[in-house]
Known about the structure:
239 residues; 10% strand; Ribosomal_uL15/eL18; Ribosomal_uL15/eL18_sf; ribonucleoprotein
Amino acid sequence: MGAWRPKLEYAYINLWRIQEAVASGRLPVPEERPIDVRDLFNAKLVTLRQRHAGIQLLGRGHESYSTPLRLEVQMASQRAIEAVEKAGGSIETVYYSRLTLRSLLKPHRFEAAPVGKRHGAMRPRPALPPPKLMTRIYMSERHRGYLRQLQPGDVVRPQEHPAHVDLSVRQKPRYPGWAAADADAMASGRPYIKADGTRTASGEKAVVDAVGKAPSSRAIQTANPRRRDNRPYVPGERA
Length: 239
């Protein structure tokens, strides 16, 4: 037996269903970005399981497809690509890992923070496709890959992904006492974290616990020295 090579599995959707959902108002069309997997998932047009690597667009209904749309999927058939572009729209195939796809579909799972913590939850950075998928699909003009402007051998960094693909955005968590902590920091002139996750003072660390930092065990021992039996340490006293 050879090595086990698991195949990627996608959730399928056809052109006629997208056009029908847009016409009925079930699928809102965003103005500033293309329709992506999150929009199709929220509109209940596809059911994504843990085994799925995204959405594959198929060309059934291409004869009557006439709605110009900007679409973003993970895979697309050639018939679907030709029909979308013939109608005046555009299509792009974008890769998501299982973790980044989960953070896109369910961002609230990555925004929770323990009570009293000053740091926000970090979303996962965008992952690069595996080498074979990158060269065959996502660097291919034929498949309208989102990395098709690159050439083999070019260095691709995850932080250079398109803006609508980059998920590494710091989100400010919400917990009881956050507003009071911010008001205290502003009154005393200390830096604090804004709603978008950025700090008010530049040139400092991205994650700074300006308010309510728990002291380390060494700092506690230095300020309040105690003996091994947990009794307060008194200089000159015999153990």
